[in-house]
Amino acid sequence: MKQAKRTALERQTAYLAVIASDKTSPEARDAFARLIRLWHPRMMRFAQSRVPDIAEDVVQDAVLTMARNIGRLRTPERFGSWAFTIVARRAADGQRAAIRRRNLQDQIKVDDSNSAPSETIIDLKQALYALSEADRRLLTLFHVQGLSLVDLSAMLDVPTGTIKSRLHTARARLRDQLDPPTHLKE
């Protein structure tokens, strides 16, 4: 019985994946939605076993990645393993982001006995707000939210090299805001 269920699931998955992968087809969106409804409970259980605190976010990010890349799925019968691989990668990204946030919070810890934020935090916030919206968003997504270069590249629809260059430039501008060159001081 279990084998028959699995085979039916595999057939249905393959059928829906073929339709969903043809993004020009009017049925593609509906097929993708049905595919996600079919696999969502399994992906949630898998994500909860890895990162229980952020499982919903992980699956949501994974579904977005799948929606963008369903056309690249060469073997529709392998949708399940493809989906679980994406969920696992997003879970690992989430764990890395949590570690980065913890490290950043440890570095910027404010003394609890002092109710006002330290001058360093105020300076950093002012420097961030002095940047353009694009620079501030890029720095926040990478350093605070923990998005990877690949995620940023897909999100902004630009090559990874461009993201690296923009991050470098944004960091330089932030550094200039925090410590302006001596010829500009005064």
UniProtKB/TrEMBL annotation:
Pfam families in UniProt: Sigma70_r2, Sigma70_r4
Annotated keywords: DNA-binding, Sigma factor, Transcription, Transcription regulation
CDD domains: Sigma70_r4
Transcription as UniProt keyword: yes
Taxonomic superkingdom: Bacteria
Domain RNA polymerase sigma-70 region as annotated: residue spans: 35-97, 127-175
Family matches, as PANTHER family: RNA POLYMERASE ECF-TYPE SIGMA FACTO, RNA POLYMERASE SIGMA FACTOR HI_1459-RELATED
Family: Belongs to the sigma-70 factor family. ECF subfamily.
Protein name: Sigma-70 family RNA polymerase sigma factor
